[in-house]
Amino acid sequence: MTPAIANPTTTPVLKQIEALVAEVPGWSPIDQLHTLFQLAYYTADLPGDIVEIGSWCGRSALVLGLAARLTGRGRVHCVDFFPEKNDWTQNSDGSYSFRVTIGEETYGGYQSQTVWQEPFERDIVPVYMRHHSLFHLFLENIAKHQFQDVITPVKGNSDTFARSVGDEFRCRLVFLDGDHSYESVCKDINNLERFLVPGGWMCFDDAFSCYDGVNRAIEDRIINNERFELAQQMTRKFFIARKRS
Fold first, then answer.
1. Three-class SS of residue 212?
2. Over the stretch 176-230, which tens digit does the pLDDT of each residue have?
3. DSSP state letter for 49
4. 188 CB-side CA count, 13 A
5. 128 half-sphere exposure, CB direction, 13 A CA radius
6. What is the reported pLDDT for 4?
7. Least enclosed by CB within 10 Å: which of 14, 29, 89, 140?
8. Does the model's pTM come out above 0.70?
9. Where do the H-state alpha helices sit in 72-133?
10. How far apart are CA 98 and CA 100, in angstroms?
11. Separation of alpha carbons 133 and 113, rounded Å
């Protein structure tokens, strides 16, 4: 178990982040996680919670949870399909996709932008060797740092989440790291923008790196959109935009 931070107030945040995610699988680099923390921390004076679409094992969720814990403001809603090992199938071209059943509905993941065999075997297979259930692994990572009181996992996508919270829900920060297809990113923006308070931030993982769907969705729906301001690429693959006050 990662040792507890003796005094969070005097321990540099970057050191706390590194300790939190040291043993958590994922692709978000430290510089991106630090930027995400800062946005969550310095918007604590705004009303509303934090929403993450695409959580995997909880790497970025822990960082958002740290900001919520240190400021004492809001909850982090982590929305993911949390596919099990047997939900994945190999496609005819050798790549992988998954389908999950939640309630009476079946949903597909990585359908148009599939996961190629090499990264699947390198990055995803070891996760299921470590734990048979992605959802339970997420819960274990959250419990290890006692963040159950600030982090709520939600099985589903932005569609199901938006329907579940109702029109009165508000958030100050949205982090989109779900399906990277153009249609899915646009859907996530449409579903969650209406909950974002003035001055709140919408953040995008894997922006302007190697995912055309993410890039086009940002260009079409965010850049030069009069409802947003201060749109900027912050790290190698992390883009943010603030909703106008």
1. helix
2. 999 999 999 999 999 999 999 999 999 999 999 989 999 999 999 999 899 999 9
3. E
4. 29
5. 12
6. 57
7. 89
8. yes
9. 117-119, 125-130
10. 7
11. 23
Q: Do the strands 238-243 and 228-235 form a parallel or antiparallel pair, or are they unpaired?
A: antiparallel
Q: Yes or no: say if 51 and 191 are a contact pair by the CB < 8 Å rule.
A: no
Mean pLDDT of all residues in 223-245: 95
Tokens of 41: 């921390």
Query: Could you tell me which of 69, 74, 62 has the C-alpha nearest to residue 34?
Result: 62
Query: Which amino acid, one-letter code, is at 244?
Result: R
Distance CA 143, CA 149 (A): 10
Dihedral in degrees, nearest 10, Cα atoms 120, 90, 204, 9:
-40
Separation of alpha carbons 200 and 220, rounded Å: 20
* CATH code for the domain defined by 13-82+134-243: 3.40.50.150
Q: Can you read off the two tokens belonging to residue 50? A: 């934090």
Counting residues of the chain whose pLDDT is more than 90, the rounded percentage is 84
Tokens 């963040």 belong to residue: 147
Q: Where are the domains of the chain?
A: 13-82+134-243, 84-132
| Rounded CA separation 193/171 (Å) | 9
Hey, what are 205's tokens?
């993982």
